Every structure is written in C-alpha cells, then in structure tokens.
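Case study.
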Amino acid sequence: KQEVTQIPAALSVPEGENLVLNCSFTDSAIYNLQWFRQDPGKGLTSLLLIQSSQREQTSGRLNASLDKSSGRSTLYIAASQPGDSATYLCAVRGNNAGNMLTFGGGTRLMVKP
Amino acid sequence: GAGVSQSPRYKVAKRGQDVALRCDPISGHVSLFWYQQALGQGPEFLTYFQNEAQLDKSGLPSDRFFAERPEGSVSTLKIQRTQQEDSAVYLCASSPRPQGQMGTGELFFGEGSRLTVL
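After joint prediction, the assembly is written out as follows.
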C-alpha cells in the first residue's frame, strides 16, 4: 500500500525566505505526483503536476522536483510572501488503472510579514 | 459550472441522524471521486465513479456509507446513523478522463462539505 509522508508538518518563516517542502512515498511505481494548496476552510487548488517521466515542473515562484527512484519530491517556494500561508499537500497516483490519489498529511506553512 | 460545486458547505448532525452530501462535478467530466479529510490530516480516498458506474468503493469505512451517481453527473454521498468519528470534511473531485487512460490525470476539487456530528 502506498504511503506518503510530508516533512515538516508545520513551518513558520519570515517573509522573503526561500523554502523547501519535502514529500516522500514508499512505492515508486507512480503515474504522476501532484502538489496542492489548501487554504483554511477551502478545497484543494492544484499547483503543479509532474508526470512520472518528468524531473521537475515550474510555475512562477514554485518549482517541484521528482526523483521517482528514491521516492521523493520537493516543492521549492522562492521569495515567500504572507499570501503563501496555507497547507501544502503532496499526492501520488499509482500506475495501475483504478489506483487513486494517495495524499500526505500536509505541511502547514505560515509566512510572517 | 466553472468548477466542482458541493453542498451543503456545512452540516451539523446529531449522532444517529442520516446525512446526504451533494457534488456537482465539472460538466462533462467522466471521473468523480469522494475523499474524507479529518482535521489536520490529508484527504483519504473513499470511492470512485466512472460515469454512473461505481468502480471502486474500497475506501468507504463502513456499510453506513453509500454513494451514487445515477445519471453520470451529480453524485450524492449518504451517511446513515452518523457517528462522531464521521466528523470530517468530505471532498469531491472530478477529472475529464477515466482512470487508466493517458492524459495528465489532474483532479479538480470542490471546496468540500464540513460535517460535524454532535
């Protein structure tokens, strides 16, 4: 059974810092990996999706990398802003038809002005 | 509509009551998923529909949970005889393609229905 772990569980940084969120998964037979953002009381907003054949994806100040063989992904946020404060969730989808998204527990990020 | 819509957004139920949660997926999306998110945790898979067919219900925690999508669009998640441990946010997601087909496989989530069982 796929297990996804996110470290750290919570992170507080001053505005302007660059930061890295970590995600690890136990089964490397994945179809893709997706990073989501969740604001309090809200649903999930997709940030970046990396296919299993890709190494990284970039969107603005966000960069996500994938090392499938070692079962790791990182989300890099450059020049953090208070508006980046949210919970960040990593989810992997398995290779087999019918394998659904398995989520990590999330990293709660607070960026202080 | 433009996105996945869920209702009600908030539901308070007394222990033992039945509840029904509704999901309107993005128009034309084939795949529909239900997830349960307990406070402070990541979402956990409940069930999956491809059009009107429920292809996977392995995540439903007990036989008190029932989901349907009779016409392949709107879906309802029903919880009978609610218990306190059912308190969670129930998230619905849709995707344009069936699971297993080529494509990005990206899921689009609604804002969830927060259920509190007293």
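Observations recorded in class. The radius of gyration of chain A is 14 Å. Residues 36 and 70 of chain A are 21 Å apart (CA to CA). We will return to this complex in the next lecture.
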